[in-house]
Amino acid sequence: MPWTLSASDMVTPGSPGPPPTEPTDSKQAEQPLLDGAPSSASLDTLIQHLVPTADYYPEKAYIFTFLLSSRLFIEPQELLARVCRLCIEQQQLDKPVLDKARVRKFGPKLLQLLAEWTETFPRDFQEESAIGPVKDVVGRIAPCDETYRRRLHQLLQALHQKLAALGPVPESLLGSDKPISYRTKPPASIHRELLSICSDPYVLAQQLTHVELARLRHIGPEEFVQAFVNKDPLASTKPCFSDKTKNLEAYVKWFNRLCYLVATEICMPSKKKRRAQVIEFLIDVARECFNIGNFNSLMAIVSGMNMSPVSRLKKTWAKVKTAKFFILEHQMDPTGNFCNYRTALRGAAHRSLTAHSSREKIVIPFFSLLIKDIYFLNEGCANRLPNGHINFEKFLELAKQVGEFITWKQVECPFEQDPSITHYLYTAPVFSEDGLYLASYESESPENHTEKERWKSLRSSILGKT
């Protein structure tokens, strides 16, 4: 059923040891999970682990994990300013005479950290004021090597390009989210059928993959954290996350739209034979989505077919060869916490890792289940331990799940886009749930008292009949 959601490396990561950290009373805080990273620590200690020195650079996994989770405890812009201040203090960049040898060892590491940060979390730099501390610290090391200033300029150019690409979702991707009511004689725009736009299930599966990847590209990793954020009781400030999960929410709306589009396409034809043809076509589309690795469209199609207005069309389903549909239902069976789907997803993920072509790299997970997994991970483990330390071990697991998704969403779609098909997927009107029921009852008469009463009520409310 539809679901509801209320740069290449400049240096080699690694180091002979961690930077200085504050002492801790907790033995658990001394248990390393990454090179020099604690399983739990104070926010100050974790920030210190992020700051590079002449002889230290944090592991890539640590950088991603901390930058992802830190926004629960400190606003990104404040974190960036603190990192820059620590760099200036530790490298004594405020002194009139700099240790050039040390700065030349430190400079590339600082620029690498900035490159990783701007590449993975570009929206942290949307405010122009966020760039100020960065320009300040790089300006202090530039006299030791003028290439630092040039590399920062290149980094900022790449950042602006990335932010432009991640700007507001294009109008062409918005479509129509509002379902329409059923009418006895639908207007011509509704009368248009998917089969008249595309009759090849493989082509439609490819176009659905285009739509999925285009929408996924706008979702930043930080949205997965911000979707479940609560005010941290020990935070000095309250991060403002309003309007920062809109791309994630828009993707959920797309899933719901596809469910309703599938149900509308099935319920709309007046002839039983045509409805059966549409069902068989959509089953083939779902199977092609499975083969491609597009599990989100697959689940939306299966969910649309399982909506009550569709599943009750017994005479229609009697004309459908359902063996292939049952196989797909088995793959997406929720039993055992979607055990079959998770096995198929692991297979697709393995194929992606060893792929030699973009076609084999495609992995589009069933999105609402991914959100559910992250939600329960967030709910099942505390952000802070009883001693007030941040539970970094929890966020390592969170980063693992989000990081895998970020890798998948960056795959370039290898299929040629057909604008006429994608336009239809975005803009074709879909019936509301009541509209679907009414269309279903008019296709196949109500079978029991409950259905008859509902039909009467719907006809009265939607069609204005008594």
Automatic annotation (TrEMBL):
<feature type="region of interest" description="Disordered">
    <location>
        <begin position="1"/>
        <end position="35"/>
    </location>
</feature>
<dbReference type="InterPro" id="IPR036964">
    <property type="entry name" value="RASGEF_cat_dom_sf"/>
</dbReference>
<feature type="domain" description="Ras-GEF">
    <location>
        <begin position="200"/>
        <end position="446"/>
    </location>
</feature>
<dbReference type="Pfam" id="PF00618">
    <property type="entry name" value="RasGEF_N"/>
</dbReference>
<dbReference type="InterPro" id="IPR023578">
    <property type="entry name" value="Ras_GEF_dom_sf"/>
</dbReference>
<dbReference type="GO" id="GO:0005886">
    <property type="term" value="C:plasma membrane"/>
</dbReference>
<dbReference type="InterPro" id="IPR001895">
    <property type="entry name" value="RASGEF_cat_dom"/>
</dbReference>
<dbReference type="GO" id="GO:0007265">
    <property type="term" value="P:Ras protein signal transduction"/>
</dbReference>
<dbReference type="InterPro" id="IPR000651">
    <property type="entry name" value="Ras-like_Gua-exchang_fac_N"/>
</dbReference>
<keyword id="KW-0344">Guanine-nucleotide releasing factor</keyword>
<dbReference type="InterPro" id="IPR019804">
    <property type="entry name" value="Ras_G-nucl-exch_fac_CS"/>
</dbReference>
<dbReference type="Pfam" id="PF00617">
    <property type="entry name" value="RasGEF"/>
</dbReference>
<dbReference type="GO" id="GO:0005085">
    <property type="term" value="F:guanyl-nucleotide exchange factor activity"/>
</dbReference>
<dbReference type="InterPro" id="IPR008937">
    <property type="entry name" value="Ras-like_GEF"/>
</dbReference>
<feature type="domain" description="N-terminal Ras-GEF">
    <location>
        <begin position="34"/>
        <end position="164"/>
    </location>
</feature>
<protein>
    <submittedName>
        <fullName>Ras-GEF domain-containing family member 1C</fullName>
    </submittedName>
</protein>
